[in-house]
Amino acid sequence: MTRDMQITFDCADPAALAAFWAEALGYELQKPPGEFTSWDEALDAFGVPPEKRNDMSAVVDPEGSRPRLLFQRVPEGKQAKNRVHLDVRAAPGLEGDARMAALEAEAERLVSHGATRLDRHEPAPPLMFGHIVMADPEGNEFCLD
Questions:
Q1: Which one of 34, 85, 96, 107 counts the least CB within 10 Å of its CB?
Q2: Do residues 11 and 62 both lie within one domain?
Q3: Contacts with 30 (C-beta within 8 Å, 6 or more apart), sequence order
Q4: Count of structural domains, the chain
């Protein structure tokens, strides 16, 4: 049996991290439930106080085929290197210099949205095609692959 899944990020600022990942992946902020026209309207109706309104945020694939990403506020900061990370496929079908140029362009774009560039791994045929290691605005590592 297959199951749907979502990927959950613990973070300090769910709204900001959701906005970053929406930009990085071409996702959009999840729309409010039912007939509500805004999240503020929905949260007012649910009785959520203003100081709790950035406790969670989610982004979704506009085409509905990729997993939902949920961002939840936690009190502690990031402690160590991720054991699981996302690979953002930023150069599909490209090889060699063209692949690395596409990855560099995407790295620059994401840095302009708050990411940090950590490392570049050069292509090493036959099995390694090259990638760039990045961190999101809260330090979670991911790769441009």
A1: 34
A2: yes
A3: 57, 58, 59, 60, 68
A4: 2
- Residue appearing with tokens 């990855």: 103
Is beta strand 56-60 parallel, antiparallel or unpaired with respect to 68-73?
antiparallel
The SS3 call for residue 127 is coil
User: Within this chain, do residues 69 and 20 fall inside the same structural domain, yes or no?
Assistant: yes
Residues 66 and 107 in one domain: no
* Band of residue 79 on the pLDDT scale cut at 50, 70, 90: confident
Both tokens of 135, joined, read 């961190």
Task: Clarify whether residues 67 and 22 are in a common domain.
Answer: yes
Neighbours of 145 (CB within 10 A): 18
Cα 6 to chain center, whole Å? Answer: 12
Tens-place pLDDT, residues 110-139: 999 999 999 999 998 777 899 999 999 999
7 pLDDT band, cuts 50/70/90, is: very high
Residue 95 CA from chain centroid, whole number: 24
